[in-house]
């Protein structure tokens, strides 16, 4: 498929997924937040992670905030991304309270900047996504920040995308710069997808 057709396909899929998320009932979001938090805690336990990177979820995304509160209380060092104008992600641990709106319109933590390479020291990376396919290919939201980060890492700890259940699909359109993930976490399950994830002893979904 020509590159312009792939890009158009991606835009159409993202628009459909955004609309689906906007229309999700509040009571469903509340229930799925509780379920997702339990799955994320289980993933941390399964991988014996003592440090991780995650992100502050936007209102229509799977809600990571209760999990982040739990991680802070549990003493798990958590890095949160700060988007830079040059297209890179910087990192901070934040203070658990202060938030800003980034130049991209995303919620971000405020705090001391630790530099882009701080991500190399974590045991687990949690990333947002609009959808992921069964091969592990991730469809992001079109800005390229997380693909660039994953593609430039010196080390590669386990990488899991956080999704709603119906966003794990058979196939997503792929471009050369797109980076895969090792698995997904949804409200109902943890799904290992990469070959190396099979060696981590995660329960099969």
Automatic annotation (TrEMBL):
Residues engaged in binding substrate: 56, 61
Key words, A-Z: ATP-binding, Ligase, Magnesium, Metal-binding, Nucleotide-binding
Co-factor(s): Mg(2+)
InterPro entries documented for this protein: FTHF_cligase, FTHF_cligase-like_sf, NagB/RpiA_transferase-like
Residues where ATP binds: 10-14
Name of the top EC class for this enzyme: ligase
GO biological process, one term: tetrahydrofolate interconversion
UniProt feature coiled coil, ranges: none
Record EC number: 6.3.3.2
One Pfam family from the record: 5-FTHF_cyc-lig
UniProt cross-references to Gene3D superfamilies, sorted A to Z: NagB/RpiA/CoA transferase-like
GO molecular function, one term: metal ion binding
Catalytic activity reported: (6S)-5-formyl-5,6,7,8-tetrahydrofolate + ATP = (6R)-5,10-methenyltetrahydrofolate + ADP + phosphate
PANTHER family: 5-FORMYLTETRAHYDROFOLATE CYCLO-LIGASE (PTHR23407:SF1), ATPASE INHIBITOR/5-FORMYLTETRAHYDROFOLATE CYCLO-LIGASE (PTHR23407)
Family of this protein: Belongs to the 5-formyltetrahydrofolate cyclo-ligase family.
Name of the protein described by the UniProt record: 5-formyltetrahydrofolate cyclo-ligase
Organism: Gryllotalpicola protaetiae
């Amino acid at each position: 498929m020509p590159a312009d057709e792939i890009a158009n396909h991606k835009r159409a899929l993202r628009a459909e997924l955004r609309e689906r998320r906007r229309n999700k009932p509040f009571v469903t979001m509340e229930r799925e937040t509780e379920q997702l938090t339990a799955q994320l805690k289980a993933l941390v336990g399964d991988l014996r992670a003592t440090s991780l990177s995650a992100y502050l979820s936007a209102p229509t995304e799977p809600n990571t905030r209760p999990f982040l509160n739990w991680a802070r209380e549990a003493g798990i060092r958590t890095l949160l991304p700060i988007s830079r104008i040059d297209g890179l992600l910087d990192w901070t641990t934040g203070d658990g309270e202060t938030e800003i709106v980034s130049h991209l319109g995303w919620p971000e933590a405020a705090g001391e900047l630790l530099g882009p390479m701080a991500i190399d020291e974590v045991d687990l990376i949690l990333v947002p996504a609009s959808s992921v396919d069964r091969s592990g290919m991730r469809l992001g939201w079109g800005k390229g920040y997380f693909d660039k980060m994953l593609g430039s890492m010196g080390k590669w700890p386990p990488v899991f995308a956080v999704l709603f259940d119906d966003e794990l699909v058979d196939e997503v359109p792929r471009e050369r710069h797109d980076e895969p993930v090792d698995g997904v976490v949804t409200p109902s399950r943890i799904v290992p997808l990469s070959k190396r994830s099979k060696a981590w002893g995660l329960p099969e979904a």
